[in-house]
Amino acid sequence: MVRIKFQQNLDDLKERLLVMAGMAEQAIQRAIEAYRTRDLSICELVLRSEPAINRLEREIDQLALDLLAMEQPTAIDLRFILSVIRINADLERVGDQAVNIAVRVKEMGSYANVDLPVDIPKLASLAATMVRKALQAFIEADATLAESVLKMDDQVDDMNDAAFDTLSQLIKDKPELTPPSLNALIIARNLERVGDHATNIAEDVIFWVRGADVRHNMSST
Amino acid sequence: MGVDIRVENLNAWYGSTHTLQDINLHMPANHATALIGPSGCGKSTFVRCLNRMHETNPIARATGVVKMGGLDVYKDASPVEIRRRIGMVFQRPNPFPTMSIYDNVASGLKLNGFRNKKVLDEVVERSLVQSALWEEVKDDLKKKSGASLSGGQQQRLCIARALAVDPEVLLMDEPASALDPVSTSKIEDLIFQLKSQYTIVIVTHNMQQAARVAENTGFFLNGKMVEFDSTHKIFTNPSDKRTEDYITGRFG
After folding, report:
1. Nearest CA-CA distance, residue B180 and chain A, Å
2. Do A72 and B207 touch (CB under 8 A)?
3. pLDDT surpasses 60 at A1
4. pLDDT digits over B167-207, tens only?
5. Where are the domains of chain B?
6. DSSP secondary structure, chain B, as one string
7. CB contact B143 to A (< 8 Å)
8. Is B207 near chain A, with CB under 8 Å?
9. How confident is the model at residue A2 (pLDDT cuts 50, 70, 90)?
């Protein structure tokens, strides 16, 4: 006997998480676009999207909690719900990082645009690709695609480290560029965190699909 | 203390129906092993083969090896001796309805010829304490009949009766399926405590019960054991798709 209502609820949970994913991904894309164009109106869009993301995070958590309490799921269903709870938290934090970036871009708008020797758009593109691939892996239950996301994280970390070194040196050499450099440094750090959240999401997809816990470079099942 | 149970190439039949096919597994001593599977899958037949209850049916037969500790259940002892060493508790509590609580517990010993009142008193008290019933019945041991107790109490009385003859293994065939949640919880607590002294095999349709009480779980389907593993593995990441489909409610 298939548990029809339970299956419907699982489908509902997945659909809501996909809506959440769409909102978080859009927020980070907009924040990156705002940085690239210095368009403060886009920053406002990002800031305005945060309450909806937070609200949906709570709704998804509540539904997941209800299913755990009422249905006592096991095996792949249990792993799916646990993964949804974790991915939900990571998506909310991706939204937070988007807000942090938007706040920085707004601040950068208060002084003249300077050309900094760091490729923030490239770092942003890489982090956004990680998020997109991690979510695609979730949609398609594709653990192999999720693994490819894990491999990208080192690149993002390296770029963030390089940005830190470059901007630190720039602050020493040209103290007058400290405000924009600090903002760029914080944005690079925000994007590195986005990459970390995408990594977490990919790890959760692997856990859901294969039952393997690969967090912290562990390969135990 | 409990002993381990090793089953090798166990096959069982009812008439021409091959109800158990090539079952092999090892149940460690002082562990609880849960057996799950849809109705008719063979799990009850399996436990009845462990204590030779299966052969009480004239059309039933079994082949293979069941070892309890070093003892070959089918070669080294009589069915009566095996059933003393492997106690059994059934789905429906089945106390002797007209016997007192005391006599219910002492019945197995009396059948085996024990008459020493002091010894019987000690065994009855110890068994009722072990089955967590002593405090509830100690003042009415000889005044009340087994049938006067609630369903949950009757089941614990049956457990006390099984423990009184000092078994090494306790087989429980859906012991809580006819009980309310509070009584079920008491039985599960009991299983948890009894593991230190006995090896327990429990057949259950309640997935969560299996997950709560047993270290290992076996999944039976159509007379075969599809998967046997740690309960943690079975309920979080089973190896066989059929196990997963069953425990997630997709069939069965």
Report:
1. 18
2. yes
3. no
4. 999 999 999 988 888 888 988 999 999 999 999 999 999 88
5. 5-93+167-247
6. ----EEEEEEEEEETTEEEEEEEEEEE-TT-EEEEE-STTSSHHHHHHHHTT-GGGSTTEEEEEEEEETTEETTTSS-HHHHHHHEEEE-SS----TTSBHHHHHHHHHHHTT---HHHHHHHHHHHHHHTT-HHHHTTSTTTSBGGGS-HHHHHHHHHHHHHHT--SEEEEESTTTTS-HHHHHHHHHHHHHHTTTSEEEEE-S-HHHHHHH-SEEEEEETTEEEEEEEHHHHHHS-SSHHHHHHHTTS--
7. no
8. yes
9. low
For the segment B114-129, the average pLDDT, to the nearest whole number, is: 94
Query: Cβ atoms within 10 A of the Cβ of A157, count?
Result: 14
The arrangement of strands across the sheet holding B32-36 comes to B86-89, B169-173, B199-203, B32-36, B216-221, B224-230
Residue carrying the six token digits 């164009």: A37
From 3.40.50.1240, 2.40.50.40, 3.30.450.20, 3.40.50.300, which CATH number describes the B5-93+167-247 domain?
A: 3.40.50.300
Locate tokens 């991915």: which residue? Answer: A87
Chosen for mutation from B230, B237, B244 (greatest number of chain A CBs closer than 10 Å) is B237
Give the nearest partner residue to A75 out of B208, B237, B252, using CB atoms.
B237
